[in-house]
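Running log. JK asked me to keep both predictions on one page so they can be read side by side. First protein, sequence followed by its tokens:
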Amino acid sequence: LYLGYTQTGLWDLHGDSYPFVDTSFKPSLFWRKDAILQSQDKHWFLGMAAGIDIINGKGGDDSRSLNYVYLQPELNYRFSGGSTLTFGPRIKGYFDESENSDYRRYAGYVDWKIRWAQDKGLMLTGLYRHGSKNYNMTQIDAAWPLRRTPLNMNGYLHLQYFTGYGETMLGYDQRSGPHFRIGLSLIP
């Protein structure tokens, strides 16, 4: 059982005075087990995660929040060379959508996710969401551990491609992109 916290801020380095476009705060409570079932050779294994995410942003006229519970089965294949391929669709059930009652139309009910990760190396992740009509989102991330850079600290250097709906909680109903980004993920 885990308690998590994610804070995401999008910084517009091309705008006047370099403003933050949006900042979201996401505390979460979740359960996770990496291998519920495993093949005899331990190359294939099925993991599972379930939890609750509470996403909040600004107050006042820009106030918004989103709460959902999820179940995420993860089918994994462990390669002999020290990497793992994971397919993990996150199935979501929304509740308390008073501020964003139409969010599910834009994000749908499943986050389709695939990830390939080297042990202590490169991690590639693809994420796709499909809401109703043509409301969809595609995000591709590449991450490199900061431990393997001169910074030698916990976290990752990220490169990201994004296009579609739901980029921010404030503008979830506006199409955005394509965007290419660079960022840092710091882990205590």
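And the second, directly underneath as requested:
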Amino acid sequence: MKYQHRHHAGNFGDVFKHVALVAMLRRLATKDKAFFFLDTHAGRGLYVLDESARREALHGVLRLATAEPHAEEIRDWLTLVRSCNPGADTAGFSVYPGSPRLAQLVLRPQDRALYCELDRPTAHALAALLGADRRSRIECSDGYQAMQASLPPPERRGLVFVDPAYERQERDLDQALSALRAAVVRWATGVYCLWYPIKRRRTLEGLRDAFERPGWPPTLAVELCVLRDDSRVGLNGAGMLIVNPPWQLDAAMRVWLPELHGLLARDAAARWSLEWLVPAR
């Protein structure tokens, strides 16, 4: 793989998807029964905000380091990030937690997680980070194959978090959508979250077509852009497709998403959006 997330850790895309991830896990945890969490492209779990990463983190997590947000979901995520930087002042974050570390901080004793990472050294680093956590299993494996092998889980509830590298954006998005459709057939009641980058708007035109099929579960499309569409930079925004979103997640996102957008947007023409691709019944 050419893509190395350590150069992009803590950017606005990380902030957006991780606020949403923590919010979804918290909602699953409101019921006593155990749930299952599958992270298909887990990464190393914790990233040093060195000189190469800070260039993007300055427009992401470091932009919020001294913030006192109103929305509970943003405050919750920020508290977890601060817990990974003990002894540092709010402007001095030195590391950024990825999705496995954030999930480890949220999961309860009865919950279970499977973290998949294809790169062996990265998987070993993740295993060292998470330690002897009986709730967690780390596999050096293809996350899409793990979706086939692990679903449905013994637990009746859970979240599948799909966050590939998108080295070849259109092809990788097609692969992710195909894996998502196949997974929903096997486990129709699971919550699924697919993150995707927004570079050129035309590359996302087929997203709606992917869900135009009878019986498809309720699906939200949520996007946050920090620059106007089709700006000539690497990344204008990020989006998430959320299948079977937890109860009232959309209402909560309509509160915290505009606040997060206000904190991160770098262009007055940048936009955020939330819409039901498949409405809840």
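Observation for JK regarding the second prediction: The helical segments are 12-28, 51-57, 72-83, 99-106, 120-130, 143-150, 169-186, 249-264.
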